[in-house]
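Box 3.1 A note on notation
Throughout this textbook, protein chains are presented in two layers. The first layer is the amino acid sequence; the second is a token string describing backbone geometry. Keep the layers aligned when reading.
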Amino acid sequence: MNRFYFDHNATTPLAPEVAQVITEALRSGFGNPSSVHQEGQRARQFLETARRRVARLVMADPAEIVFTSGGTESNNLAILGCVRNVETGCARHVITTAIEHPSALEPCRHLEREGVDVTILPVSEDGVVDPEDVRRALRPETVLVSVMHANNETGVIQPVREIAAILQAARDQGQDVYLHCDGVQAPGRIPVNLETLGADLYSMSGHKLYGPKGVGALYARKSVRLSPTQFGGRQEHAKRPGTENVTAAVALAAALELASTSERLEKIKLLRNRFECKLFVELENISINGGGAERLPNTSNIYFDGVDGGSLVIALDLKGFAISSGSACSSGSIEPSHVLMAMGKSHKKARQCVRFSMGYTNTLRQVDELADAVAATVRQFRARRHSSSQRSVPGVPA
């Protein structure tokens, strides 16, 4: 049986071109980049070339790129590092949203236990935070606003530029407040220009970009001071100690460059739109979560009335399709999606939603087969439910 992968927001397959880069870096860049001998300096050259490539692709300065182990570490370093840099004893306040990834929400909750005030803003039914809510929540002691660029479950893109403008106005009045964006889902799916976006801190991850797991990057604007969250060395501009993973950094740069090509960005949008159109022709009582907002071109989170999302995921997996009912980082939770709940879904309706996320390796034929399989499976589930409800009605023969 053929298998088709439609869970690219959880992780992506390693691109063959990136695998080749990894092999070369393992062979030629094995030295410690802090060593002064030729092998070490060759590794340093690999590392700094990768840093320049990443910086160029997101329109940043190479000195503002810090290599990490992934999106989770980048988010933790940005949030904890920025807030803890404020002098001990000073009042500190953080603003974030109810739809953030756990790797951003949990550091904020940890800061609360350290005595930091945290405001969690609501979102609209389409999953968008209102920039005016950010403005109203600002206090003189606000040091950080953390708003994701694009949501991992719904693909909804947040109004980052508008929020950045509000914070810039506050800085113009003398307040030291910065904007962090969890950008893990955005690069490689939409163009990312950090010069115009306005974020002061921006998190990225390699395995969402057809690169390997275990590598990411944090963009930290030169004006932002971060306290390290780990100790033991002065690597990565004294922000992230430890011998650098040269091979992974090289792979991240190669993956980001490949994923950002305009042809690939256009292709995934075509695939997603075709999929949604076919489903709406085939099925009634479905809706797109975040459908009224700007979304990532590869992401479709759909509500299927009367169908348990987890059961649909399993049924489609048995038919050869890999999809998801939500964030992979929360897959062990028995609670419904906190993102969908924040968008106003009830517990019951939140459990009747499924996420489909396309990648450039998918084809139109695969998308058509997926839509057919989803429609057939949903109809089967609804027929069984209808039959079961008929049997439970008094006077109706079993």
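The first helix runs from residue 16 to 28. DSSP finds 14 helices and twelve strands in the chain.
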